[in-house]
């Protein structure tokens, strides 16, 4: 099977130029599905912590299997890398680089990808995915840019007070659809901002999102705040939006 070009797993790497980011560009990696054709348009998943999603989450491997063995319609994945030293500053609403990163993402990254690849350019065909702070910034981007994003995958989202305030200040969120999970062993996880009960952070966010009209699939199960847990959840998360029984 591996000799057939139809089944080849293709990942391209790029530097996306930026006027907003001080470095002047950001590294991304793009997974193209088996049988990729430039003249077909595809749904697209945008991952925060792109390097981790590909290396530790094995999202390209999962996707290849789901498309080839489960018969899912093909889709493209864009992983957006982050410098771990700058991650909190870029991903949290009170961070020094938050406005630079969110503007880069919405105003530069999305147009660049859509000019280079045949991805669909409507909100319900763009999915934002992230783990921990990456899950929270994915929701945050959807709140900032509702005309661009309304589909979220959140793996153990770090819903600190600054994100909760964004949800509270939002009007109706009945256009939003989310898949969220948290591990039951994440009830005392040490972060650079203190030790948090991620189970309660996610339960509180879910209650607030549902009050605002968002549609959710929310999962709690045994798991720790690490990729060993999240990697196993990626197929279910993707299936919420791309599988045979999407969230209605």
UniProtKB/TrEMBL annotation:
- Tell me which PANTHER family the record gives: ENTEROCHELIN ESTERASE-RELATED (PTHR48098), IRON(III) ENTEROBACTIN ESTERASE (PTHR48098:SF3)
Which residues, by range, are in coiled-coil regions? Answer: none
Q: Known InterPro entries for this protein?
A: AB_hydrolase_fold, Esterase-like, Mycobacterial_A85_antigen
By what name is this protein known?
Esterase family protein
SUPFAM superfamilies given for it? alpha/beta-Hydrolases (SSF53474)
- Organism in which the protein naturally occurs: Cohnella luojiensis
Q: What domain of life does the UniProt record list for this protein's source?
A: Bacteria
* Transmembrane intervals: none
């Amino acid at each position: 099977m591996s000799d057939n070009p139809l089944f080849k797993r293709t990942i391209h790497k790029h530097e996306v130029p930026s006027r907003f980011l001080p470095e002047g560009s950001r590294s991304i990696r793009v997974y193209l599905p088996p049988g990729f054709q430039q003249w077909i348009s595809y749904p697209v998943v945008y991952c925060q912590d792109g390097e981790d999603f590909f290396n530790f989450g094995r999202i390209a491997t999962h996707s290849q299997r789901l498309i080839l063995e489960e018969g899912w319609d093909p889709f493209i994945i864009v992983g957006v890398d982050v410098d771990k030293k700058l991650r909190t500053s870029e991903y949290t609403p009170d961070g020094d680089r938050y406005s630079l990163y969110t503007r880069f993402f919405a105003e530069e990254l999305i147009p660049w990808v859509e000019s280079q690849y045949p991805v669909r350019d409507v909100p319900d065909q763009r999915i934002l995915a992230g783990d921990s702070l990456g899950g929270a910034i994915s929701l945050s981007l959807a709140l900032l840019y509702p005309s661009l994003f309304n589909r979220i995958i959140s793996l153990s989202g770090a819903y600190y007070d600054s994100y909760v305030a964004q949800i509270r200040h939002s009007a109706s969120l009945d256009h939003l659809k989310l898949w969220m999970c948290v591990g039951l062993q994440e009830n005392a996880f040490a972060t650079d901002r203190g030790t948090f009960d991620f189970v309660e952070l996610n339960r509180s966010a879910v209650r607030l999102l549902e009050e605002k009209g968002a549609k959710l699939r929310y999962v709690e199960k045994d798991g720790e705040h690490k990729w060993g847990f999240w990697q196993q959840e990626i197929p279910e998360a993707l299936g919420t939006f791309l599988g045979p029984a999407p969230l209605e």
